[in-house]
Recover the amino acids of this structure.
């Protein structure tokens, strides 16, 4: 039977698409390539396979240049090669310096999948990579397989000079124009906000076309398009480009605001799920490791799409040599390890872990090259100590980075154990660093970790303390002290980004402070919705007014109004209200600890491996069902085994 | 005053062009990409410069995507930016994933050259690279600057089916066809030999075109083209593509055969001088390090073009990570170090040495990873122990490789000293290895070095012994023993490639055996000329007949008939007859030791740094003039200072 797949070198597909994405950001008529070192796929790849068969055929199409050698006789691409009964050594040499080096292999007598081996004309041979969706010649993996949906504007408004089209909500789409006058020039001003589209001198993305009657413009992020054209009668539509995910998780409750927030968060997040996890679909349209950490957590309670997490992890870490921090950011290198760990716990994909582990080692070696004389990781010139858009005392080694390194070391120790690589010294390094951090950064007087030990300022911010709680670096006494002295302390500068708000709420929820969580979600996310947001913003400051909300980085429309890191409530409700989390890799075992918090009724589903847990809870009854074994329900201090497909009902 | 240059990241120009070259080899309708890992330029580059100026302008064209930021205001490519009197921080971000990332900068108020700094969005900032030939917007360095010359066929012969065009000598050229019938298909069969062009089922390079009346086909190597077309009246010509070198060195003598050999060698060599040193212009059309070592030696007595050597050295060593031997060949990695050393001695370009030295260290680290328990370098599976197309006992660690490593260590020690990098242990490693080699490989009974110590066969070939003489690893007594027992010993398998014949003649000449040199040149090179060669072949075996000479690698026309490594006599006559060689870097000091050998009269020129040495010698008189100071003439055991532009005349 005929079988056919596209094959490529492991990692090339991800690196090609993430790299291409990073070269596509557009702004005021020019390209803004990502501001870190970019890496693409290998330039040449060798595929090999021994075939023993009855009479049949082998067909190979090469995406690039190259040749197919069968028992040392060479053929060009696209040859149907007849194989008589016998044994054949097949070697396919390909090169592609502008696209994705890949081949389409089809045969009626041999497997056309990962049983082929390949290398990059160096290194060990490994199984060729393939994906079941690329199973025919016309489905070239160089073209990322998005889905499309036609969208029409929901509002059209004429102004003195032009026409404003409103698509009702943010889109990432190709704009189509039909019925244009080919002799007339058409100016286009895109906007995430109406103000941006109409403010033609400042709109972030603009275009100008002429010479045709129909256009399909390049894909862009917008809700509004303001078009100035001399001619009437044009038709404007958009082809929305997206990943056709299945919603495996969901949450509903009696609080209608929370439901609206979840819907907006879900749409925001979905728009940003592309080749990898984007930060924002207008700006920067890049893959940032810290943002991706949040996105991966959200993904696991919504789409549970393993592939996008792996594309993101591969695209971020790249290949040797490691010459800089991921995205140049110290904390983003460290969060990569933690993302990988939580990824493994969720999906249990040991093969992926095995493949990416060597790069984890290289990245950790790079990080360790940044350890100062006192034993702490510290940025050097060219490194960016980000943590958050907030006033943090960043003199010398910064506490929040140490928290992340403690956790990163400990997950590296687990990886080494999972992969049975023998003793590693990562666990010991984690322990030692934790001790040092307590010594240098814990301030008994303030009852908190301070930002910097070398500035002498003993400044306390929420950030390091939040990480200390999230990753159990603080002991129980310290956690309570942090709760009182930092998290509940109004005099400690508030978080302004949904990014770190996500972490703060995680820490609060972990400490059982659900009422604080609900208050913040209602105020902070609710505040954006009150201002008409149909997607979550990059940052929200309630003290700002009107179009002030759209500015950032000194740019009138510099703020992203559709930023993935704002989708945190999806994670929070799934993790702490439905209360589902893995306790061993791939949800082999897991816990369900539902909590109502201040709500009257909650219900929803959480994907757990190849199954789903359904939870319904109100003030009278709790019902939990799992379509996967291995779960334990915890309620009121008691534990119940969740048997496959059997509903546990508890009167509360 | 307006100034303008193209700028790029150091190394990118070379890597881009050498990589492109390695993807261009054509054979029977398919591409044969090089069989080692290929590397291209960086994908994104950041250029920075501070400008303080009076009123003026700055213009930047980006080859790729990107933007120009002037005091944080961004502009698209091709903007004329007006600068008022003041100070400006300029930052240009560019990306190019399909070509050479480069910018053209023009200004009337600032330098547009290496005073700009750049990095690849990682690593230190270094001076931007530029070349004086790329000094206007239309001279894009992505297009390699070849020269062109129209060539007409010198012979046209009709056959029953088609027409054979003979261009008189091998070319690398675009074939032009004019006056074609656009409805008729045209089949083309190229040949280095007439036999190949006419043997349509087996010709190496073929093409088939239709649909136009004029064609300019892609550039290819050929002397003959056999064209089968239904139509008459077509006009065929070729656009010869070449580097417009100046001949800085020359040699003539009373032996007319030698003069013809030199002319053929010169043309062969010139055809193979392209983006880098090619092995052959039809096959493989790749840059091989061992071939390039020979080519560099020849170049220094002919064109003395520093640039092609540097492009070759950069293209071969690539960038981190070093994952395999250069061209996958153990000896080719080691010859790279020696090529670099001789390059430095010739041109004295310390800046180049400084830039490439870090990669030399990485390559040496890689080689040292291949050292076996006995202390010898040894290939592992995937490595190719080439040495020569000859029967060498390659069991375990092979002697010839150790000879190269001894020399490679010693040149690394010199590099470290030249660059004042403090103590290195390379010199010590060289000494130790030499001692070990004498212990394991020197066979007193055979009076020679044996190939392998581990096979037990004690096989002697010429190769290791030749290297031992060339690099003074053998002591004087060993050298005489090698001369008698190996080089003059007819029972030791003869060399069949001009590649190793070049080394053998170097060793013989060094030992003063000029009559042997002359005999071999006359027999071996003369033998090819007798068979009608207009360029030197890859291999010559006088025992073969007719079209047998064209076959190699199991392919009827697999042998390259225009192979650079056959141009060795140019080096030999310059080095040992005119007798000119550098004794310190860049020919700061040099020696002139003319020798007539068995000839009656010789004369010629050798480039020495920015000067030239002219030598005339016959049986009565020696005349030597140098246009560069620093030379010493050695004649009959006496030394004479060569004063600038003063001719030394000695009656002999």
């Amino acid at each position: 039977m005929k079988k056919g797949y596209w094959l490529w070198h492991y990692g090339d597909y991800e690196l090609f698409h993430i790299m291409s994405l990073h070269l596509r950001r557009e702004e005021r008529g020019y390209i803004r390539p990502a501001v870190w070192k970019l890496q693409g796929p290998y330039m040449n790849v060798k595929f090999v396979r021994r075939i023993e068969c009855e009479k049949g055929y082998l067909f190979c199409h090469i995406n690039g240049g190259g040749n197919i050698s069968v028992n040392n006789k060479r053929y060009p691409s696209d040859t149907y090669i007849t194989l008589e009964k016998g044994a054949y050594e097949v070697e396919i040499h390909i090169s592609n310096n502008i696209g994705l080096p890949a081949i389409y292999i089809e045969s009626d007598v041999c497997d056309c999948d990962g049983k082929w081996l390949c290398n990059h004309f160096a290194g060990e041979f490994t199984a060729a990579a393939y994906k079941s969706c690329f199973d025919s010649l016309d489905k070239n993996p160089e073209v990322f397989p998005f889905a499309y949906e036609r969208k029409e504007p929901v509002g059209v408004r004429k102004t003195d000079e032009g026409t404003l089209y409103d698509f009702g909500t943010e889109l990432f789409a190709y704009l189509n124009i039909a019925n244009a006058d080919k002799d007339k020039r058409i100016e286009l001003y895109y906007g995430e906000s109406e103000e941006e589209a109409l403010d033609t001198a400042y709109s972030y993305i603009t275009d100008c076309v002429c010479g045709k009657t129909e256009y399909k413009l390049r894909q862009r992020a917008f809700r509004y398009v303001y078009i100035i054209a001399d001619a009437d009668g044009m038709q404007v539509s958009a082809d929305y480009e997206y990943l056709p995910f299945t919603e495996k998780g969901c949450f509903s409750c009696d609080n209608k605001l929370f439901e609206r927030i979840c819907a907006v968060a879900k749409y925001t997040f979905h728009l940003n799920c592309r080749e990898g996890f984007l930060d924002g679909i207008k700006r920067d349209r890049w893959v940032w490791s810290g943002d991706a950490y949040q996105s991966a957590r959200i993904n696991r309670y919504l789409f549970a799409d393993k592939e996008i997490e792996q594309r993101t992890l591969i695209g971020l870490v790249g290949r040797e040599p490691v010459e800089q921090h991921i995205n140049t950011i110290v904390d983003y290198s460290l969060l990569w390890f933690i993302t990988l760990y939580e990824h493994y716990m969720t999906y249990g994909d040991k093969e992926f872990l095995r493949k990416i582990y060597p790069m984890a080692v290289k990245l950790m070696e790079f990080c360790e090259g940044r350890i100062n004389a006192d034993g702490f990781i510290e940025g050097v010139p060219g490194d960016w100590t980000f943590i958050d858009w907030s006033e943090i005392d960043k003199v010398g080694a910064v506490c929040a980075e140490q928290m992340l390194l403690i956790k990163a070391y400990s997950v590296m120790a687990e990886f080494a154990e999972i992969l049975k690589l023998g003793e590693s010294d990562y666990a010991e390094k984690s322990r030692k660093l934790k001790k040092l951090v307590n010594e240098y950064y814990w301030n008994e007087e303030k009852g908190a970790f301070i930002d910097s030990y070398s500035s002498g300022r003993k400044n306390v911010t929420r950030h390091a303390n939040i990480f200390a709680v999230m990753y159990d670096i603080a002991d129980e006494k310290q956690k309570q002290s942090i709760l009182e002295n930092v998290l509940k302390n109004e005099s400690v500068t508030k978080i302004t980004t949904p990014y770190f708000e996500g972490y703060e709420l995680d820490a609060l929820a972990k400490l059982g402070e659900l009422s604080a969580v609900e208050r913040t979600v209602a105020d902070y996310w609710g505040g954006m919705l009150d201002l008409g947001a149909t997607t979550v913003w990059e940052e929200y400051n309630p003290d700002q007014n009107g179009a002030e909300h759209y500015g950032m980085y000194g740019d009138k429309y510099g703020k992203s109004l559709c930023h993935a890191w704002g989708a945190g409530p999806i994670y929070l409700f799934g993790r702490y209200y439905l209360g589902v989390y893995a306790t061993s890799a791939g949800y082999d075992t897991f816990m369900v600890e539902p909590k109502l918090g201040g709500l009257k009724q909650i219900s929803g589903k959480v994907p757990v491996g190849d199954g789903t847990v359904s939870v319904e809870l109100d003030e009278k009854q709790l019902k939990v069902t799992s379509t996967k074994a291995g779960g334990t329900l915890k309620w009121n201090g008691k534990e119940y085994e969740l048997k496959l497909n059997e509903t546990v009902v508890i009167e509360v």
User: Anything to note?
Assistant: The CA atoms of residues 134 and 140 of chain A lie 7 Å apart. Chain A has a mean pLDDT of 97.
